[in-house]
Amino acid sequence: MMLSGEVLFAWSSLWKDSTSAYRRSSRTITEHGSRAFSCNHVAPFLIRAMIITAACFLLLTPAVCGQEARGIIAGKVTDDDGVAIVGATVTAQDIDSGVQYTALTITGGHFILPSIPAGYYRFSVSAGFHKPYVSENLKIEIAQPMRIDVVLERLERTEPAEESAGPETLRGNSGQWTHNHTGLTIRSLPLMAFSSGPSGEGSIRNPLYALLLAPASLMAESKYFRINGAPGNTAA
Asked: What is the C-alpha R_g of the chain?
C-alpha cells in the first residue's frame, strides 16, 4: 500500500513533537524528586498522540479506499499458421455485472485490456473467417497481469467463394459470371425504327442489345450473340 509523502511527513512530525513533550515532562518529574510520578502530567501528551494518530488514519482512509482492485489482460492473437491477426476483437465480460471491456489487436496481433476489476470473466476473441475463441470463468486477480496467447482456427468454406469485381460477380470454383442490368440501362438503349412515321412512332428498344454491354460479348454478322468466345449458334 502506497502512502503519500505529505501525510507521512505530517504524521511523523506530529508524533515527534508529542514524544519530545512527553520526554521533557518525564525529565521534569524525575528532577523534582519531591514529587511522585503522576499520570495527570503524562495523560495529556498520550491523549494528544492518540488524537494525532487517529487523524492520520482518517486522512489516509480515502486514499486507501480509492484504490480499486484491478488486473490486466495482455496477449497475442495468431491463426493456425502462426500469422498475426490484426483487427481481431478481444472482449472480457464480467460474469456478475455483464460489463464488457473490449480491445482490438494491433500490429503483430498484440492486445491489452488494462485496469480490469478483479473477478470472473467470459473472455472471447473473434475475427473474420476464423472460428471464435471463448474462455469461461476466467479469474482476474488483484495486481496480477495475465497473458493469454490465442490461436484462431480458420473457417472451412463450404459455399462457393464469391468476390465482387465491379458490376460482375466472380465465382471462384467455376468459369461462370453474372452481369446485372437495371431498368435504367434498358431505357437507355437506342430506339429501333420500323416505320417512316413521326419520330418515335413504331420504334422499340430491343432488350437483347443490353447483352452487348456485358464484358467479352459481341454480335457476329449472322446476328447471333457471341459471349465470352462461345460458338455463334449456342442456345441459352
From this structure: 42
Residue where a domain stops, chosen among 152, 179, 201: 152
233 in a structural domain: no
| Contacts with 120 (C-beta within 8 Å, 6 or more apart), sequence order | 94, 95, 96, 137, 138, 139, 140
Do 22 and 58 share a domain, yes or no?
yes
Q: If 0-12 CB within 10 Å is exposed, 13-18 middle and 19+ buried, where does residue 140 land?
A: buried
What digits encode the pLDDT tens for the residues 92-121?
Answer: 999 999 999 999 999 999 999 998 999 999
What DSSP designation does 44 have?
A: H
Cα–Cα distance for residue pair 149/143, rounded to 1 Å: 19
For the segment 171-198, what is each residue's pLDDT rounded down to a tens digit?
555 556 666 767 777 777 776 665 555 5
114 in the same domain as 58: no
Q: Find the angle CA(160)-CA(165)-CA(168) to the nearest 5 degrees.
A: 80
- Residue 146 burial (CB < 10 Å; 0-12/13-18/19+)? middle
**Distance from C-alpha of 166 to C-alpha of 146, rounded to nearest angstrom:** 46
Sequence-distant (6+) residues with CB within 8 A of 79 are: 85, 130, 151, 152, 153, 154
User: Would you state the cell numbers that stand for residue 214, as one nine-digit string?
Assistant: 456485358
Residues 78 and 62 in one domain: no
Residue 43: inside a domain: yes
| Angle (CA) 19 20 25, round 5° | 100
215, 210, 204: which is closest to 181 by C-alpha?
210
